[in-house]
Amino acid sequence: MRHGNDGREGTGVNAVAQTGHRRLAVGRMAGDRRRVWPWRRTTLAALAVAACAAPFVLEPYRVFQLTMVLVYGIALLGLNLVVGHGGRVSLGHGAFLAIGAYIAAVMTGRLGVPYPLALPVAALVTFGLGLALGRPALRLSGPYLAVVTFVIAAVVPPVIKRFGTVTGGSMGLPVPVPSAPSWTGLAEDQWLYLLVLAVAAAAFAAARNLLESRAGRALTAVRENPHAAEILGVRPGSHRALAFGWSAMYAGVAGTLYAWVVGFVSPDSFTVTLSIVLLAAVVIGGPGSLAGPLLGAVFVTFVPAAAQRAGDALPGIVSGLLIIVVVCFAPTGLAGLLRMAAGGVARRLGRG
Amino acid sequence: MTVNGPGDHPRSLFDPPPGTGNGPAALLRVHGLRAGYGPARVLHGVDLELAAGEMVAVLGPNGAGKTTMLRALSGLVRGRGSVLLDGTELLGRAPEEIVRLGVAHVPEGRGLFAPLTVEENLRIGAHLRPANERAEDMRRVLAWFPVLRAHLSQPAGTLSGGEQQMLAVGRALMTRPRLLLLDEPSRGLAPVATRRMFDVLRAVGSHDRVAMLLVEQDARLALEFTSRALVMESGRLTVGGPAGWPQAGRRPSLFRPGR
Question: What pTM value is reported for the model?
Answer without folding.
Answer: 0.83
